[in-house]
Amino acid sequence: MNDWWPMSGGSFAFSSGHWFPSLDVSDHVKDHLFYVILYLTGVVFIGTGAVLFWILWRYDGATNADPVVFSHGSHALEVIWSILPAVVLLFIAIYQMDAWAGARMRRPTMADGAIKPPLCRVTGRQFEWRIQYPGEDGRLDTPDDLHVLNDLHVPVDEEIVIEIESMDVLHSFFLPNMRVKQDVVPGMRQYVWFHPVKEGVSDIVCAELCGWGHYKMRGRITVDNAAEFDRWYSAAYAEQETSQFSLPEEEE
Ligand SMILES: [Cu+2]
């Protein structure tokens, strides 16, 4: 069980050489963008910290008899600290465009060019993730749908599209390993997509404070090969058919 909890196994630790949970996807993943921004902000953070400490030391009143001399206005400095951040922000704005389009705008298509339908719908609800697969007929909200709780399964090596919705308040559907994070807004139907290339189990977490039980709003995503996915699906479906348990009706 431990291998899917990101705080264990040192995948967040500096010592392992990774800043992010292990990478389970290929495209749509632009970790280098995170690193570019991390290095940029890191350099600025260390630089301003160093200047602050140098000034504290240099103008320490106890050891410095001379009064501090204030100067007003430096045209050159102001131009530099206006232009430099503007250039950096412009660079980031242009550099990230393709990553953003791939993650948020270019919805995956099928061989014939049609928009790929979602594999399933994930509904956020205080405090769980309800997952609904369309079943044989390929349509959601029909009697043959498969309902599971907090246990998302997806096949490996294909574009996975998921429809996300909220049943109550604002949640955020976060798959750290897939680098997917999307606010789940009540009344909105949204889609996220990713392309898992490695089998395994990782987290689903809620990344938006949504109530007292926010901390436990956690599920898992299992990436299976096609055969295993089919086996899991049939087993879950058979279990649903035989069990007395059903999800409570949605409140009006
Ligand atoms: Cu939540």
TrEMBL record:
One of its GO terms (biological process) is ATP synthesis coupled electron transport. The chain crosses the membrane at residues 33-59, 79-97. Pfam families: COX2, COX2_TM. Gene3D superfamilies: 1.10.287.90, Cupredoxins - blue copper proteins (2.60.40.420). Its cofactor is Cu cation. It is found in: Cell membrane; Membrane. Keywords: Copper, Electron transport, Membrane, Metal-binding, Respiratory chain, Translocase, Transmembrane, Transmembrane helix, Transport. It is an enzyme of class 7 (translocase). Its main location: membrane. Residues 1-107 form the Cytochrome oxidase subunit II transmembrane region profile domain. It comes from the Bacteria. SUPFAM superfamilies: Cupredoxins, Cytochrome c oxidase subunit II-like, transmembrane region. One of its GO terms (cellular component) is plasma membrane. Binds a copper A center. GO terms for molecular function: copper ion binding; cytochrome-c oxidase activity. It catalyses: 4 Fe(II)-[cytochrome c] + O2 + 8 H(+)(in) = 4 Fe(III)-[cytochrome c] + 2 H2O + 4 H(+)(out). Its EC number is 7.1.1.9. It is a multi-pass membrane protein. Residues 115-235 form the Cytochrome oxidase subunit II copper A binding domain. Belongs to the cytochrome c oxidase subunit 2 family. PANTHER family: CYTOCHROME C OXIDASE SUBUNIT 2, CYTOCHROME C OXIDASE, SUBUNIT II. Subunits I and II form the functional core of the enzyme complex. Electrons originating in cytochrome c are transferred via heme a and Cu(A) to the binuclear center formed by heme a3 and Cu(B). This is Cytochrome c oxidase subunit 2. It comes from Blastopirellula marina DSM 3645. The lineage of its organism: Bacteria, Pseudomonadati, Planctomycetota, Planctomycetia, Pirellulales.
